[in-house]
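Section 5.1 Outputs to date
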Amino acid sequence: MNRRERYREQTREEVKELALAQLAEAGASGLSLNAIAKQMGLTGPALYRYFANRDALLTELIGDGYDDLARALAEAAAADGTPEQRFRATAAALRGWAVGQPHRYLLLFGTPVPGFAAPDRMTEAAQRSMRVLMELTAALDPPGPPRTPLDDQIAIWRQHMGVPAGSPAAARLALATWTRLHGVLSLEVSNQFQLTGVDPTLIYQAEVDALLAG
């Protein structure tokens, strides 16, 4: 990149860093391009040369989040060990990513941002993490329970994501893993366990154990 291109990229990264700080403090509803411009010593119109509007900035933040999460899961899944050990490591990486930066987790999996419609390309970004889980559960090769009406839907979903390998039981396990682990994490990062006196670490571990046992 030439000097102008480097400056533009550095400015865009600074905007995103400040936006993430806003998310951590006030959530997605508190995101303000004008406030970011003021922090950077820019005018509002000047900032719009880097991001056309709030939705363009949100789109980049969400895409970055999905990419970062997928990398974390893929690295854990690629570690040496048995399929069960790799499954546990990947589940731990998922929780580590979520509790380490809850504002980014909630941006991806929390309440939709009012007025924001994610572009279609976000679907592909969101599916990368699920592909990691589907490959892991295929390696586990779980025994298959009796066929259920859900199996046809899961088969379509698996084909849509381009992960044909693995049995229907493995695909069901991937879906159960995604829903159950995110269920615990969503409660944890939004501080819903505080009033219960229950350690979310133990609840999460119990879910991982139950998924493997089942």
